[in-house]
Write a structure and sequence with these properties.
Number of helices: 12
Shape: globular
Number of strands: 19
Structural class: alpha/beta
Largest sheet: 7 strands, mixed
CATH topology of the largest domain: Aspartate Aminotransferase, domain 2
Oligomer: single chain
Radius of gyration: 21 Å
């Protein structure tokens, strides 16, 4: 989505626009020209190898989107009905859906009020004798305390799944996010630091999962008996044109992150002294914020009123994740044993994120800042 003129002639600023370079376009054109467009084209393996090399995983398995990657990750675990998976309540519903569809039970933990990410302390509060796995999710540009959580998981004999959809290229203690899980998942949706439009991948470090994952995403095809199938699996393949874009996007990852950080620094200059909002924490667990989004928490005013005010001024925003334990879609049986999760609820009610991306100029950010300050002045 680009900046467009409204009926009154004023500019509309969308919440995001991806970074697509000339090199990206050339890479996709070359794939079209060589007819590398299907999900079984050689370029798929090229992209998977580039991903596994970058993330230092045994194997990368590309799929059609990040939610599918989570689904397959939990299908690989063969969890039983009484098995529980710890996950943060403050995250995307794909995480919850994958666990429930696998037949396991979600066990929600809260998050840190400053980093908005799960910590080892949060995990310990949700742990019990039925816990079999932990889903670590990195949120909004900062990492969860995954190194400590992994040690805890290893000590307890638990399986660690790492959702790295929002943390491409993020480090924790000089180790890449996506390298800690037995299986880690990626999303390449349009707003991710590496995008293929739609798309995702599993990063697999446990060899016992690799062959099965490859079959699960591809209808259980076996080269030796192509149209004889032993399982009713899925077609979750990524397309060749998407892979071509992804290959180029990996090469531009550092530049993309650098641009996001620079935009965030401008917002920080505008809002750091504000008494009305909490800005994102700049560093956490030895990591610099990559600002997948630039989120703010309102301290004194209505988040919804601010959103309504800004959209009238031509500024699009997005609310924070609504807590999973409060979702209407959550089966009643999983609601009755939910712990108090005040931080997740506070973030869900009071958080929103501001426009970032390739369309945003310094004057746009100054305008956004002035409109937010105008709202606070008029509402005080």
């Amino acid at each position: 989505m680009t900046n467009i003129k409204t009926k009154k002639g004023s500019k509309f600023i969308p919440v995001f626009e991806p970074y697509i370079t000339l090199q990206d376009k050339i890479k996709v054109f070359k794939a079209i020209n060589s007819k590398n467009i299907s999900g079984t084209s050689p370029i798929i393996e090229t992209f998977e190898n580039k991903l596994s090399n970058f993330f230092k995983s045994e194997k990368a398995v590309t799929v059609s989107n990040g939610s599918v990657a989570l689904d397959l990750a939990f299908e690989l675990l063969n969890l039983k009905p009484n098995d529980e998976v710890i996950l943060p309540s403050f995250t995307i519903i794909s995480c919850l859906s994958a666990i429930i569809r696998s037949g396991a039970k979600p066990s929600f933990c809260d998050v840190d009020p400053n980093t908005w990410n799960m910590t080892l302390e949060n995990v310990k509060k949700a742990y019990n004798k039925n816990t079999k796995a932990i889903l670590v999710v990195h949120i909004y540009g900062l990492p969860a305390e995954v190194d400590k959580i992994k040690k805890f998981a290893d000590d307890k004999g638990l399986i660690l799944i790492e959702d790295t959809a929002e943390a491409h290229g993020q480090l924790i203690n000089n180790n890449l996010c996506g390298t800690f899980g037995a299986i880690s998942t990626l999303s390449f949706y349009a707003n991710k630091h590496i995008t293929t439009g739609e798309g995702g991948a599993l990063l697999i470090n446990d060899k016992k999962y690799i062959e099965k994952a490859m079959k699960m995403k591809n209808l259980d095809f076996d080269p030796k008996k192509r149209f004889q199938h032993d399982n009713l699996y899925w077609n979750y393949r990524l397309g060749g044109l998407q892979a071509a874009l992804g290959i180029s996007q990996i090469d531009n990852l550092k530049k993309t992150i650098s641009k996001k950080i620079k935009q965030a620094e401008i917002y920080n200059d505008i809002f750091d002294s504000s008494e009305y909002i909490q800005t994102p924490q700049k560093k956490s667990f030895g990591s610099v914020n990559h600002y997948w989004v630039y989120g703010i928490i309102l301290k004194k005013h209505s988040r919804d009123d601010l959103q309504a005010f800004l959209i009238k001024k031509g500024i699009q925003t997005r609310r924070f994740f609504w807590p999973l334990h409060l979702q209407n879609a959550l089966p009643q049986e999983f609601k009755k044993n939910t712990y108090q999760l005040p931080v997740s609820e506070h973030l869900g009610k009071n958080g929103l994120y501001l426009p970032m991306g390739s369309h945003l100029k310094r004057k746009d950010q100054d305008y956004i800042g002035s409109m937010i300050n105008e709202f606070f002045s008029s509402s005080s």
